[in-house]
Amino acid sequence: MKRIEVVAAVIRRGARIFATQRGYGDFKDWWEFPGGKMEAGETPEAALVREIREELSTEIRIDRFLETVEWDYPAFHLTLHCFLCSLCSEALHLNEHEAARWLDYTQLHDVRWLPADEGLLPLLAAELLGVDPTLAAFLETQVIPRYAGFDKAHREDHARSVVSRAIDLAAWYPVDRNMLYTAAACHDLGLSVDRKTHHLESGKAIREMAELRRWFDDGQIESIAQAAEDHRASSDHEPRSVYGRIVAEADRQIVPESIIRRTIQYGLAHYPELPREGHWQRMLDHLHEKYAEGGYLKLWIPESPNAARLKELRAIIRDEETLRTLFEQIYAEETHG
């Protein structure tokens, strides 16, 4: 089989990674990390600097080697040397690619990656979250994909959003990021057993996950399991640790329109026999029970942006005309879109 050796730049700017969309060839429209073939006599680093100059009309600083990916495509074997890089200036131009995006952790799976490049995503998750790369490889490939079978409001994007918010909140507290990452990634696994007790089932799943003993001792696993058990908004007790408080806060996802949409999605998925007015009333009851003044939802982390967003949501709940307009718009999108 023909062998091709190439280099790729994983360009990082803060909490985002640069991705480019291929504009030619068999994989046109797929996404990749910019780079290209090494020329005779070139070192990987020299080849990468040259390729980025040609493809993006910019200069990079190579910060460090990341990983070499070996991948068999149908017509050739690819050796892909990947380096973590920074831009030397903000200016760049797409000379070969048709589009580009800066992706944060929650967006890494939003594009269709070339197969070899996709293999880097767990490592990039570890880079962006500041966690153990071997733990990220396990959680990103064997745990978070379990969410794919849950309802629309609790798919893989939900798990990664909770992870991202939890890690952001960790900046305020002296916590073990690997423990927090694991608790957030596993917090809803119990949905595969029972929705009403899913928080307890999630704790049980964590305690029974033998793979976690590679990174944590029994005491740490118990803390992770308790954090998952304590995340539920309707819990009758305060979270037992800072890990539980952070995961519970990160799980709130107080974005008014998103909360209304998730409520409608859940109703459509679990009560398909209800007419439109039935779904309206069900949504109204749920929002008042959970989010309105006197509702059971409690906020645990003062540094979270949720307080301002909860105030905004409560204003919408009080304004039934605005709420009805949002309901009609989202209901139409979810049933006809």
Descriptive keywords:
337 residues, 45% helix, 7 strands, globular, alpha+beta, 13 helices
Summary of the model, kept short:
By secondary structure, the protein is α+β, with helices and mostly antiparallel strands. It has helices at 44-56, 115-118, 121-129, 133-143, 156-170, 177-186, 198-207, 218-229, 242-250, 256-270, 276-290, 306-318, 320-336; strands at residues 2-13, 16-21, 31-32, 35-37, 60-72, 76-87, 99-103.
Tell me about this structure.
Helix content is 45%, strand content 16%. It has helices at 44-56, 115-118, 121-129, 133-143, 156-170, 177-186, 198-207, 218-229, 242-250, 256-270, 276-290, 306-318, 320-336, and strands at 2-13, 16-21, 31-32, 35-37, 60-72, 76-87, 99-103. The protein has 337 residues and is α+β, with helices and mostly antiparallel strands. The termini are far apart.
Helices and strands in order:
Elements: E1 2-13, E2 16-21, E3 31-32, E4 35-37, H1 44-56, E5 60-72, E6 76-87, E7 99-103, H2 115-118, H3 121-129, H4 133-143, H5 156-170, H6 177-186, H7 198-207, H8 218-229, H9 242-250, H10 256-270, H11 276-290, H12 306-318, H13 320-336
Parallel strand pairs: 1-6
Antiparallel strand pairs: 1-2, 1-4, 2-3, 2-7, 5-6
Helix pairs in contact: 3-4, 4-6, 5-6, 5-9, 6-8, 6-9, 7-8, 8-9, 10-11, 10-13
